[in-house]
Amino acid sequence: MNVLIYENDEQIGIAAGNYMCGQVLQKPDSVLGLATGSTPLKTYKQMIELYKSGAVDFSKVTTFNLDEYVNLDVNDKNSYHSFMHENLFDYINVSEDKINFLDGNAEDTDRECINYENKIKNAGGIDIQLLGIGSNGHIAFNEPDTCFQRRSHVVELKESTVQDNSRFFKSIDDVPTKAVTMGIGSIMQAKKILIIATGKNKAEAVKQLINGNVTPQCPASVLQFHADVTLMLDKEAASLI
Ligand code: PGA
Q: Would you say 194 and 130 are in contact if contact means Cβ atoms under 8 Å apart?
């Protein structure tokens, strides 16, 4: 694992945005796996900056997002669909028909998950997967005790995740308790992984990710088995390693 430690999240955003855009420069029709949450915001800002400066062209890129809430309108401000448009897609030239999300409102979510996996396969697989990490060690919505083999599936969110995500909602009762997510099996198929963690509340999970046993109790620990992982940390997130 390539572990890089930065002074602050500004620096990480620049480095991570450059890394993602470097992938697109090397392979203009790259398939990017994208993440939501607070962590990638500055990464997306840098990707937008580089696009505006003319350094990178996203017109041939395909994207797959990691996850989406179940039973939340896609146009709700808290849907991951809205998040990605507000923080990246509306400012770069990615083609709308090459943007992919799991549909959390699909009538048959199991079928939806199978279709999503097939779409990823037909696109040639994910070239680079961007990830954050939950304070409980989750990646995407693969919560502790997940099965490492699973592909996209429906999950019941743990209380700690609902609590973490409640900061975006009016009240904790408004936070969806279910989501559709790419599984650990899907994430491990990505050719490269870029994972970012910032802040003290991620330090314990980062310690488990790097130095802990590989165990479904810390889903992110599985990344020790992936051949091409870059982990970008600020000093606080790196404080226990
Ligand atoms: P955060 O979430 O970036 O909002 O901290 C990360 C995650 O839960 O994967």
A: yes
Please tell me the distance between residue 162's alpha carbon and the centre of ligand 1 in angstroms. Answer: 11
Q: How big is the chain, counted in residues?
A: 241
pLDDT tens column, 193-225 = 999 999 999 999 999 999 999 999 999 999 999
Q: Name the pTM for this structure.
A: 0.96
Q: Is 143 annotated in the active site?
A: yes
Q: Helical H runs in 131-220?
A: 159-165, 184-188, 203-211
Active-site residue (options: 138, 142, 164, 165): 138
Query: Residue 232 is which amino acid?
Result: M
The residue written with tokens 């209380």 in the block is 159
The verdict on the CB of residue 104 being under 6 Å from ligand 1 is no
The token pair at 121 is 């396969």
Residue 234 β-bridge partners: 6
Contact 81, 74 (CB under 8 A): yes
